[in-house]
Amino acid sequence: MRKQCLLACVALIFAARSAPALEYIKIKRNNRVVSVTGQVVVEAQDGGVLIEDQMGVLWAIQPEESLAREKDDLPFQRFDASQIQVRLLAELPEGFRVFTTAHYLVCYNTSTPYAQWCAALYERLYRGFFTFWKNRGWVLKEPERPLIAVVFDDQESYASYADEELGPSADVIIGYYSLQSNRVMMYDLTGADGQGFGRSRASTAKHINRILSQPAAERTVATIIHEATHQLAFNCGLQIRYADNPLWLSEGLAIYFETPDLKNSRGWRRIGSVSRVRLPEFRQYLLDRPDNSLITLIADDHRFRQPSVRQRNQAYAEAWALNYFLIRRYPREFVAYLKVLSAKSPLVRDEKEQRIAEFKAAFSDDLEQLDAQFLRFIKRVK
Ligand SMILES: [Zn+2]
To answer: How far does residue 16's CA lie from ligand 1's centre (Å)?
Structure first.
């Protein structure tokens, strides 16, 4: 199954403004009335508003969805880990449990060893992620709340839960990070669960080995790390939810981090190995890559939204290759570029010209020359 990832943004033009009071908004969405309580992140002159609720969910509310709106002077307070846990369990189908680690809250109805294995991967990524950026001169801020992952035991229950957010795509998207809910959602891709594994240390190890020996292991590990990388990036100040984040950057970065290491007992060891999925795809694309490919990749996100799976995969492959090249050849410039993006406001769209200008300002005015250097570099990658 091909990996796809969803990072949808709402295309509205808003003006940034802060408002500390607690807001109560009643909206009608998908034929349901929903009450949202939270703080305003961004407000538009036409009445549209971006609200963060106490669970960390962002609500982009169109004026026509709003039924009633009030506010008072109570300070906005995010729920703590135990309050979040209670609400999550009430929201999810029957049978879910929660496994907590230092930074994560994993909701699962898989076996406990599978959830523990996912959580261990998350924590390992967390440490690696912060160290990676610190070594490049960027000390990121710790997330303000526990990071939430929901792990379903099978594709069917995952798809029915994800249906509201993904629609028919839920059947082909095998895991995703939701910008709206700020959660990672996925299911047990290995199907290794439900086979009567106990909870002892020995049987957990057996269980993990079993997962890693499944044919789907490579994509399982890659998906877990990929989506968790998106989540981390949006919770430590590296990226801003609902800001104009170029997809070549978001996706290429997540692929840069995801590369599994199935020889390792956890399935993932280090950041930045060559992607054995994306490198061959990019090499194939090079056979008839258009001269303006770099420009079309960075100017907007349309190549990631093509109906053709082949074209989308080419965009993902080139995104990985470009991130790989820039991180290795222009590490300081890459961090400086990310810092420019991380200062953007939510729900403000950049024009193509702006995206290209920011890219040029960070890396090179001469994109033809940079592109030639990029291709020479990738051709030498083994
Ligand atoms: Zn992605």
So the answer is: 26
